[in-house]
Amino acid sequence: MSDPTASLTHDAWLSAQLDRPCFIAPPAWSAAVEAGLAALPAGSFAYAKIPSCHVADVHSFEAAGFRLVDTNVTFERLGSGSPPTRAVRLATPDDAAAVARVARESYLFSRFHLDPRIGPERAAAIKAAWTANFFAGRRGSRLLVADSHGQVAGFLLAIDRDDRAVIDLIAVSPNHQRQGIAAALIEALSAASTAATTLVAGTQIANVPSVRMYETLGFRLAASAYVVHYHA
User: Fold this and answer.
1) 66 and 16 inside one domain
2) Is the residue at 148 inside a domain?
3) CB 113 within 8 A of CB 107
4) Is residue 232 part of a domain?
5) Nearest Cα to Cα of residue 182 among 150, 214, 206, 151
6) Are residues 197 and 93 in the same domain?
7) Which helix (H) or strand (E) holds 98?
8) What is the residue range of 37's domain?
């Protein structure tokens, strides 16, 4: 007998973070997705990222019990090779705890933070665990850190994909925000990239300071998607 949940992709890492079965739904609604949701075990979690122009699909997901939690926006620009405005270095294994701390305390607008059924404490733990994946060699190509008075004040986790450098995570400690640290991290990534490399960054439409920063640094909007969550 075929598996009715085959239309959904099991997210093993997120399942471990949320202590419940987690699945990724494809961005297009279909009868197969509907059948897969109906077959999920009680307490499961699923999510989908739907291009913002596909409004009919959004309505179908919502009719099935998904709830909109975020509008994700993607920005792009070419690498410039400009030197950063402050010292930025590659992370070492000794930075793991400090980077996790910054990740835990710095985010407010991630899709996990914006979902009231996940809550800020669990959302913060997810971001900290995300950085641990880099130090364990499971995710990311390089991690840059900016220091301030001997402490890690911010970090940028990047994933290199052919001629694209994707900013997977970026965060600045609340005590060091509005000091140009995020911009310095991005410029350091740019300086380490060729002029033909496309820098890619994603953020939430609710995160207005982040959107403004990317625009100031020459990024331009490239795509947008609705993020919907399903709690069985």
Assistant:
1) yes
2) yes
3) yes
4) no
5) 214
6) yes
7) helix 96-106
8) 4-70
Q: What is the DSSP letter of 83?
A: P
The two structure tokens encoding residue 200? 């890619």
Per residue in 184-202, pLDDT tens? 999 999 988 887 799 999 9
**Alpha carbons 209 and 118: distance in angstroms, whole number:** 24
> What are the distances in angstroms from CA 123 to CA 18, 50, 110, 112?
9, 21, 8, 5
Distance CA(120)–CA(124), nearest Å, equals: 6
Euclidean distance between CA atoms 143 and 161, whole angstroms: 15
> Both 15 and 57 in a single domain?
yes
CA angle, residues 186, 223, 36, in degrees to nearest 5: 115
Distance CA 146, CA 154 (A): 5
Q: Which residues are CB-contacts of 48 (< 8 A; sequence separation ≥ 6)?
A: 24, 25, 26, 27, 61, 66, 227, 228
Same domain for 186 and 85: yes
The one-letter amino acid at 92:
T
DSSP state of 30: -
For 48-94, the pLDDT digits (tens) are 999 999 999 999 999 999 999 999 999 999 987 666 667 899 999 99
In this structure, the answer to whether residues 209 and 165 fall within a common structural domain is yes
Inside any domain, residue 63: yes
Number of domains the chain is built from: 2
Residue in the block written with tokens 């986790």: 157
Distance (Å) of CA 98 to CA 17, 141, 167: 20, 19, 19
Rg (CA), the chain: 19
